[in-house]
Amino acid sequence: MKLNPALISVLVLSSAFGFGQQSHYLTVGDPAPQLRPAKWLKGAPIEAFQKGQVYVVEFWATWCEPCKESIPHLTDMAHKLGSKASFIGVSIWESNDPTDTAYQKKVATFVQKEGAQMDYTIAVDGPKQPVANFWMKSAEESGIPTCFVVGQDGRIAWIGHPSELEPVLNDVIANHFDVQAARARREVNLELIRPVDEALEAKKYDVALKRIDEAVAKKPSLDRFYTYDRLVARFHLNWENAKSISDGIIKDSKGEIGAYRMIASILATQPDLAPGAYRYGVQLVDEALKEGEMGYLFLAMKSDIYSNLGDNVEAEKTQQDAVSAAEKDSHAPADFVAQMKRKLTKLEDGLAHAK
Fold first, then answer.
1. pTM for this structure?
2. Shortest CA distance to 307 belongs to which of 297, 319, 321?
3. Under 8 Å CB-to-CB from 16, ≥6 apart: which residues?
4. In the prediction, which pLDDT does 1 show?
5. Residue 195 pLDDT > 90, yes or no?
6. How confident is the model at residue 6 (pLDDT cuts 50, 70, 90)?
């Protein structure tokens, strides 16, 4: 099952990897384009990718909150790997005004403020977006943060989100990463998966179902992969039908906790469903809690479901229970517990303000 957001665009890459005529799109296994930013702001400029060296080229922006959250993670990896990999952060989409120069100062000020927390090479793209176009747009990526790993052969080994980077990067450095398999997975993603994600993002749920059927017709092995997306669309179009399908999934799984988790996550993350769907979600979580597995996670989802239902009192109460359960569970990740506590504070502040 997947939960990845839609990231779609189109364009192609020049055969010379410069800024001339473009001939095909950029994908895994292709030679990495040159980096020609408007300005290098921190660290030594990367004039060319050296053979035998691994690089991470991460695209971000000062206005992108998820990008900011990735900065400490990238710095930690850069410190951990040392000379084994060179990290480069390229700020893009800061300005599209050819007469603008203030964007450079804005990015430079941001980088200076981050200080040691952003401890890797930084550059900024210009208003004409040459770097963004020849990397992001050519690779059909329109969401940030996005990382490109350039292998020791100067070719792109992987494209994805920074949160998924570390194991990939370790394999690339050790020459254990299967680039051809990564390329094949990416081709499937671009052709068959992203069109569905795009329709879901646009809230065109009937279109999403149609595209899923088309994708499965082309590649039947993807049928089970689309279970989550199908349910998201159906909960929006006809929640009672989706409930019936969900009950069938749980029955067929013989109460597998993963089935409960998948369905509950839809009701926790989709904020515009019918009230009946959320009431079903509460019932579903209560059933899952009887299994005695990942209680803190299900309580956190139940809190989100109550929030979606508009019941902030129950949302706050359930979030308290979730935090308490997580603090007692040695398997609960520390960063997730911290996130739960921030959510609880937000709920408490909201209720206090309402009074």
1. 0.57
2. 319
3. none
4. 33
5. no
6. very low
User: What six digits make up the tokens of 95?
Assistant: 């300005």
Give the closest residue to 137 by CA, choosing from 5, 7, 28, 11: 11
| Residue type for position 169 | L
Q: Are 165 and 77 in contact (CB under 8 A)?
A: yes
The Cα–Cα gap between 87 and 58 comes to 8
Q: Which two tokens stand for residue 148?
A: 């490109």
Distance from C-alpha of 26 to C-alpha of 11, rounded to nearest angstrom: 9
Q: Is the pLDDT of residue 9 over 90?
A: no
In the chain, the N- to C-terminal Cα span, in Å, equals 41
User: 174: buried, middle or exposed (CB in 10 Å: 19+, 13-18, 0-12)?
Assistant: exposed
The number of C-alpha atoms within 13 Å of 294 and in the hemisphere containing its C-beta is: 18
Closest CA to 107 of 66, 143, 60, 70: 60
Q: What SS3 string covers the chain? A: CCCCCCCCCCCCEECCCCCCCEEECCCCCCECCCCCCCEEEECCCCCCCCCCCEEEEEEECCCCHHHHHHHHHHHHHHHHHHHHEEEEEEECCCCCCCCCCHHHHHHHHHHHHHHHHCCCEEEECCCCCHHHHHHHHCCCCCCCCEEEEECCCCEEEEEECHHHHHHHHHHHHCCCCCHHHHHHHHHHHHHHHHHHHHHHHCCCHHHHHHHHHHHHHHCHHHCHHHHHHHHHHHHHHCHHHHHHHHHHHHHHCCCCHHHHHHHHHHHHHCCCCCHHHHHHHHHHHHHHHCCCCCHHHHHHHHHHHHHHHCCHHHHHHHHHHHHHHHHHCCCCCHHHHHHHHHHHHHHHHHHHHHC
pLDDT tens digits, 277-328:
999 999 999 999 998 988 999 999 999 999 999 999 999 999 999 999 999 9
